[in-house]
Amino acid sequence: MIKIAFFDAKEYDRAFFNAANDGRFQIEYLDTKLNHTTAQLAQGFEVVCAFVNDTLDSTVLQTLREGGVRVIAMRCAGFNNVDLSAAKALSLPVFRVPAYSPYAVAEHAVGMLLTLNRKLHKAYVRTKDFNFSLTGLLGFDLHGKTTGVIGTGKIGKAFISICKGFGMNVIAYDAYPDTRSDIKYVSLDTLFRDSDIISLHCPLTKETRHLINRDSISKMKKGVYIVNTSRGGLVETGALLLALDNKVGGACLDVYEEEAGLFYEDNSTRYIQDEVLSLLVTRPNVLITSHQGYFTEDALTAIAETTLDNIENYLQSGDMTNAIEYTAT
Ligand code: NAI
Questions:
Q1: Are strands 26-29 and 47-50 parallel, antiparallel or unpaired?
Q2: Is 259 a catalytic residue?
Q3: pTM (global) more than 0.90
Q4: Same domain, 23 and 71
């Protein structure tokens, strides 16, 4: 039976993958993340299954290949943590789950926006203590406000549709606009200038890294809300931190550029040395969640089924449908 080394396995991964596996593969769940020191654990396995905060650089991929790995199956949509050029050179196909539930992430983005704007997280804690004061809980109507959406793929479109349901004006920027849609595309500068809320739904690439930086923030409206449920590296966090004192009204962050090693783990009894994160956490106008946009039953079911189908279809018939294509830049 084909053996899968499943890195960074959590209890919920085991439950959903065991249900989807139905005896097809021998899955070895490893608690550890995949990195330079743990790559050797995959020796003797044909397949490695990895996630968003695993390291799949050229050294790790080389170790995996030498240990007999033939397939990399990412159980996520993003693949910015994989060196695709190295994988290609090593003849290691890399699969992903391009779509599982765009609604899960879009709904989480809207949930964060509503929570931070209307201070629901504070109200919840207050009323638990019989504190029924409204002081400090003032928000604004979303109706009639302008949302700027960067990246109008599956998640961006789901987010746009929810925003329209709220009666918001939507403008968008995409490097590859969907000309068949009725989305109102504008330039990035116009989006920065006119948006009350900016939500990021593009992938992390060389072009999009630190898209939100000191310069772009300077072009934004005072009081703008920034929502990032895409990848942490899209935002230059130091610049955002400074701007939260005056320019930026609120930041909803499901992802953080230095999240690897922190997110998905209980660090509540540890001293956190990441000063930027510590400062962000203390800001009243910041809401952080731990890369949980995808975390619904529907999405986890689809992720497990597609990941295992990708492996099975490739090994049985060479099907490359969900393989990530390497394009030289
Ligand atoms: P998608 O591939 O359907 O859409 C991405 C869109 O971004 C495309 O329309 C593409 O043309 C656009 N784009 C590419 N380069 C761009 C650029 N330089 N500037 C502006 N737009 C650009 O991807 P999908 O499924 O909508 O996912 C979007 C992102 O959401 C993923 O890349 C991933 O980073 C993130 N994600 C986060 C999750 C979470 O749990 N928080 C879960 C799943 C995805």
A1: unpaired
A2: yes
A3: yes
A4: yes
